[in-house]
Write a structure and sequence with these properties.
This protein is of the alpha/beta class and 312 residues long. The protein has 13 helices and eleven strands. The chain is globular and about 50 Å long.
């Protein structure tokens, strides 16, 4: 049987700026696009997308927002492409498993953590900034609902700066799962795992790093040791003065979980349902805490990428 092979450029295309930066070993930070297309209302989503790219540049790195446009994974978007992700109706949310179908059918979509991690690493980018990771869902024993993020990070050599995992998840179970899959987790200036909207989840981490240089050193140690191509998670908490009020968070989340059970919401629908409920139930305060976390993560990721670049 005769087979044909598509060149990589036909399905994955870095922007000229990103390609040039990677060629000369300059620092680059990947950014996901789901927050633009599905996480924020218009026109604020486009403003935040541009703001996050500015933060990365101010930290000394080149931003590479990732999305799929007409079947091609674009690593680094220009202004027009960012606007398209922010405004095009019916844009799909693409995880790693969706990428082959999207390429074959020339579909467009925003990339989740699993897809962004894969595409960034495939393009040669080592550092990725996002808000919160997916993980093990509450009630896993009954549903076995676990984010594809965990599997992807267990086999992708990338450093992800995040504010922990989404607080709607089972945080202790997620940390246990990451340990089982060999994913290193380190707190950035903290001994406790961040709680996404909250400064802390109350769970401890085994490792603490204080500087971008220490994170870069850990990345180099990963490469020197070899072994499975696992990720490094740098857990960077939202500042205490920018977090969601913990009591409000707990009350509204409990209400959201009850509402989801009442309405029979499950599977892929549960995360957007709970997050939307939190935004409404906190009068938008959860969204502001999320954005504060993402801004801080973009800055730290830029500094880590710069430290990594200096030593290579």
């Amino acid at each position: 049987m005769r087979t044909t092979h598509q060149p990589i450029e036909s399905v994955l295309r870095p922007s000229d700026e990103v390609a040039e930066a990677l060629e000369r070993g300059a620092p680059v930070v990947a950014l996901e696009s789901t927050i633009i297309s599905h996480g924020l209302p218009q026109p604020r989503n486009l403003e935040v997308a541009a703001e996050l790219e500015r933060i990365v540049r101010d930290a000394g790195a080149v931003p590479a927002t990732i999305a799929v446009l007409d079947g091609v994974a674009r690593v680094g978007l220009d202004e027009g492409e960012l606007e398209r992700i922010a405004t095009e109706p019916g844009l799909r949310k693409l995880g790693f498993r969706d990428l082959p179908a999207a390429a074959a059918l020339r579909a467009s979509g925003a990339t989740t953590v699993s897809a962004t991690s894969f595409l960034a690493a495939r393009a040669g980018i080592r550092v990725f900034a996002t808000g919160g990771l997916g993980g093990v869902h509450r009630g896993w024993v009954e549903t076995q609902d676990e984010s594809a993020d965990i599997d992807m990070l267990s086999r992708t050599r990338i450093t992800v700066v995040c504010a922990g995992v989404k607080s709607i998840l089972d945080v202790p179970a997620t940390l246990q799962r990451l340990e089982t899959r060999g994913v290193t987790v380190a707190g950035f200036g903290t001994d406790e795992f961040p709680g996404f909207y909250l400064h802390t989840s109350g769970e401890r981490v085994d490792w603490r790093i204080e500087t971008p240089e220490e994170a870069a050193d850990a990345m180099r140690a990963q490469d020197a040791l070899g072994g499975p191509e696992t990720a490094l998670i740098v857990a960077n908490p939202v500042p205490r003065d920018r977090q969601l009020d913990p009591a409000l968070h707990d009350r509204v989340l409990a209400e959201a979980l009850e509402a989801a059970e009442r309405q029979g919401v499950s599977g892929q629908a549960i995360t957007p349902f709970l997050l939307a409920y939190l935004v409404k139930g906190t009068d938008g305060a959860s969204l502001e805490a999320n954005l504060a976390a993402v801004r801080g993560n973009a800055r730290v990721a830029g500094l880590i990428a710069a430290a990594w670049s200096r030593g290579n």
